[in-house]
Design goal:
Blueprint: E1 2-4, E2 8-9, E3 20-27, E4 34-43, E5 50-59, E6 63-70, E7 76-83, E8 89-96, E9 102-108, E10 114-115
Antiparallel strand pairs: 1-7, 1-10, 2-7, 3-6, 3-8, 4-5, 4-7, 8-9
Length: 124
């Protein structure tokens, strides 16, 4: 089931800008692993977006995975995530500043993410 943060504004004009994005995943299924696929889109000018990161990874049963992505210099971004075992997998996406502090206005818990029909195609 794919989800999106929607476009997130990442400038100091709207609070604190994030220098990194943290994608946290928790697989609460005690038997089955979860496959997570993500696409992170970013823009330096809010008009042209590019694929900053994309990959897949497996989260073992009853395990956590936390990944960090450098996003400084981009004024907007979107994180899209698709999970193979979505009913038993929890995700959150948070921006953190250059000191490692949470940028709370850029925090997205599972219930804050929007359902999308599929991950967007890669933008080169």
């Amino acid at each position: 089931m794919p989800f999106s943060t929607g476009l997130v504004t990442n400038t100091r004009a709207f609070g604190t800008a994030a220098s990194n994005i943290v994608l946290s995943t928790r697989n609460i299924d005690t038997i089955n692993p979860a496959t997570v696929t993500y696409h992170i889109f970013a823009s330096v000018d809010s008009s042209i977006f590019y694929t900053a990161y994309m990959s897949s990874f497996i989260v073992a049963p009853n395990y956590f995975d936390v990944r960090e992505f450098f996003i400084a210099g981009n004024v907007a971004y979107e994180v899209q995530v698709s999970i193979s075992n979505s009913t038993s997998t929890l995700i959150s996406v948070f921006g953190i500043d250059e000191f490692g502090n949470l940028v709370t206005e850029q925090g997205k818990l599972q219930e804050d993410l929007s359902f999308i029909s599929s991950l967007s195609p890669v933008i080169v």
